Amino acid sequence: MRVLITTVTCTAGIVMLRWLDTSPRMNVLAISGSLRATSSNAALVRAAARLAPSTIAIEIYAELAALPHFSPDLDVAPLPGPVAELRAAVGRCDAVMITTPEYAHGMPGSLKNALDWLVSATGPIDKPVLLISASPGGAAHAHAQFSEVLRTMSMRLVDGGAHVFSRAKLDGDGNVVDKALLASIRAGLAQLAALERSPPA
Ligand code: FNR
Prior knowledge:
The protein is α/β, with parallel strands linked by helices. It has helices at residues 40-51, 81-92, 109-118, 140-152, 179-197, and strands spanning 2-9, 14-21, 26-32, 56-61, 95-100, 128-135, 156-164. The strands form 2 sheets. Strands 4-3-5-6-7 form a 5-stranded parallel β-sheet, with helices on both faces. Strands 1-2 form a two-stranded antiparallel sheet. The structure holds ligand FNR.
């Protein structure tokens, strides 16, 4: 919600009016499932950060490659540093956004590894998560697999769709310019915000 407040400047005797946004901010942790330097899925996350309204703050998680391979033997105190940091980031955010490519009709191992580290944490439980998948072949298989995993982890899924991706959807600087894709990111963020405001069933 925006309310009008006044600011008085004494010297010139002018009353300045300005808008103050009083809506609660939703903090979203955004994770790209690709480690590639020029990743299109990382571009989707950057696009979300650019498109997000002032009521949504996007924190980009960039430490996927630093996580050790999941082992229950390592899932004890003290946790490996990158794992503790991932769990803290998921614990403090209000919602999560995941973008992912598809490899061999499956999910990227690095992203599944991160989710495996989160299975025994409380942070993801009932947390809204927006899943957007993008690959040249449409990523339907990876999308279906992650949907199942995220629901199994008791996260509240917003289905952002599985998209056919080509370099034509990026500009020369690697930014997403495809109107349909940008619209679906915008719609996904709006659904995420609506779900975050509603209590879990
Ligand atoms: C792929 N790619 C791919 N794409 C797809 O749609 N279905 C698939 O099964 C596969 N399999 C696959 C296997 C391997 C080993 C590689 C390296 C690539 C293509 C891949 O999804 C594509 O390069 C994406 O653009 C990668 O996402 P980022 O890195 O651009 O975010």
